[in-house]
Amino acid sequence: MNLRKLTAPCLRTALLASLCIGLALPAASQSLDDLSFGESGEFSAISWNLEWFPKNGQSTLDSVAAAILALDADVYALQEISDTAQFMDWAETLEGYEGLHAVGWFGGLTYLVKSSTVQVDNLYEILSTSEFWSPFPRSPLILEIHFDGQPLVLINNHFKCCGDGNLDLNDDGDEETRRWIASNLLKEQLDENYAQVPVLLMGDLNDVLTDPASDNVFQAFLDDPEHYTFADMELAQGPAAGWSFPNWPSHIDHLLVNHFWDSPDADYTVLTIAIEDHLDGGWWAYDENMSDHRPVGIRGALVLDLDELHNTRGASNCKTWSDKCIDATGRRVDCRQPRGLVFQQCETTPKYRCVLGGILLGHSE
Q1: Which CATH architecture has domain 2-304?
Q2: What pTM value is reported for the model?
Q3: Tens digits of per-residue pLDDT, 194-227?
């Protein structure tokens, strides 16, 4: 997998035959309409903490809407949405997009999806019961989709903030420990329940990737490079101009992919988008009206290593999450789970069907 990065606040590279529209022009000569990111025929996703959206009322609603439409990504994973009703009303004004959020207690996590390119299959939370509230102040929000006929599982989360940079595993209340536990619990979920489907984990994970192993809350993922890659690692290791959180200069908003993305032909661009360079007031105007986090995005032709996934199509190898997905005659059935991990219904089908996490992987031959 070839992951290209941008460490300067520009949206394009010559390699992509586009214009670099970051620092090359005076901010006063630009506007949010100059932004671009999504490309026809490519999958694009952006993670963006919107800092208690809408932080400055109508000004925030208008400016974020303009940026969303100009960036034109297929999926936005958003954090710190303070009012779901207002968010959903606002999302209806975004032509071509649909807003999504979980029911019940709300932790500020939402999605925007482009209706013309993304088929939404399922939306639910995991790790949402009380024993997980300390590591997960906001329950991970799962979005299962198809893009160009290919299944994807997207995970949006926002880890606990703050701390002193030191991991103290003897203190369950230590902020780094809470993030370490959250990271390990997410890896367990991915290992056990999503190992056979392409996954993209996005969000404000409130810690850096470059800490030494003794203090690194993401070490479980970093120790398993065969199965997981932080797509934004080069940004994290690069100069501060490419980091996502300038107010406390650090890169804490991340994109994690699993091994399905590691195809030899894959070529993805991963970058931090410096929207402030398109505002007359620069960073001050951006921080005042939009957010204190820059969005981080991934874009490219979706070339996934689906050999393992396709090999599950035969009924004898078809994996499901529960024996309830097999009827008394051994027939595979379609298990829908509109919310969470509890199967709401199982209906027999004319053919065996391989269903993982609500995503139909394929019929048996």
Answers
A1: 4-Layer Sandwich (3.60)
A2: 0.81
A3: 988 899 999 999 999 999 999 999 999 999 999 9
